[in-house]
Specification:
Keywords: Endoplasmic reticulum, Lipid biosynthesis, Lipid metabolism, Membrane, Steroid biosynthesis, Steroid metabolism, Sterol biosynthesis, Sterol metabolism, Transmembrane, Transmembrane helix. It is found in: Endoplasmic reticulum membrane. It is a multi-pass membrane protein. This is Erg28-like protein. InterPro entries: Erg28. This protein is mainly α and 143 residues long. It has one domain. It has six helices and no strands. The protein starts with a helix and ends with a helix. 27% of the residues are buried.
């Protein structure tokens, strides 16, 4: 057990300073949880897409899980490598894509309603984008 704890401690000691890398890891953990949930059931996803819950199928839930898991992995890598512009930019793009998806579902396709389950990913995407944009010069050291 001590070996596992030491290994995890070693890994986290390479994380850049500040709260932003930890935020990226936190949102990644939430994304991975959401992915696992979507692989198991589509019930929570139907709450998110409350505008058209009948459009949520087991297949669409699994596709959403795969997409969410992949952007979570990008965010984890970005969290540890914020000093590199390309990783920082990839982290930003994951939130741009998410925000575009949710805004499209709310305003264009009608899949989402402005409710609690929708507000959570919306707030995370907006907060993350603003924070990443404002802090870029503090983290990026290499082009």
């Amino acid at each position: 057990m001590d070996t596992i704890v030491n290994r995890v401690t070693d890994i986290f000691s390479t994380l850049p300073d500040g709260y932003l890398p930890r935020w990226l890891l936190f949102t990644s953990a939430l994304g991975i949880f959401n992915s696992i949930q979507n692989f198991c059931t589509d019930s929570l996803t139907k709450r998110l897409y409350a505008g058209k819950p009948e459009a949520v199928t087991p297949l669409s839930a699994r596709m959403f899980a795969t997409w969410t898991w992949s952007v979570s992995m990008i965010r984890i890598y970005a969290a540890f490598h914020l000093q590199h512009r390309f990783m920082y930019d990839l982290g930003i793009w994951t939130y741009v894509i998410a925000l575009t998806h949710y805004a499209g579902e709310l305003f264009v396709f009608g899949g989402c309603k402005f409710n609690g389950p929708f507000l959570s990913p919306l707030c995370v995407a907006v907060t993350s984008l603003v924070w990443l944009t404002m802090a870029k010069n503090d983290y990026v050291k290499f082009d």
